[in-house]
Amino acid sequence: MAKIDKLSDFIVEEKIIWSDKKRILGMPISFTKYSFSENRLFVQRGFFKVVKDELLMYRILDVRLQRTFWQRLFRVGTIELSTADKSTPIIYLENISNPDRTRDALSAIAEKERDEKRVLGKEMFGTANDGAIAHDAGVMD
Hints:
A hairpin with a 3-residue loop joins strand 2 and strand 3. This protein is about 30% helix and about 30% strand. The chain is α+β, with helices and mostly antiparallel strands and about 140 residues long.
């Protein structure tokens, strides 16, 4: 008798709209892969031990682009994402090509997802910095 796989009922294939690799000297020769769909950001690292991280786009709080002189020379940049995720509060998309367009796309998608899910910024900041907000409000004094 064949084994019944009920997991397939729950798996939804998402269309990847952007992907890149961490670049070394402008060439994509590392084992770190980045990609995102309209709902999720994916980071895969490693060769012998592969680690895959996933972040829901509405959890992105802030998007920051950094470009050193060498990165500008090789036409790459690093995007720093501040998130409301407890396991990965900061995510770096290191040495990716077209960092300006990618940053703009991430910001727009995160904003659209927050609007669709009706998540307010203060709710997101509350989950990321519970102690800081409580202290600012005078609760911890």
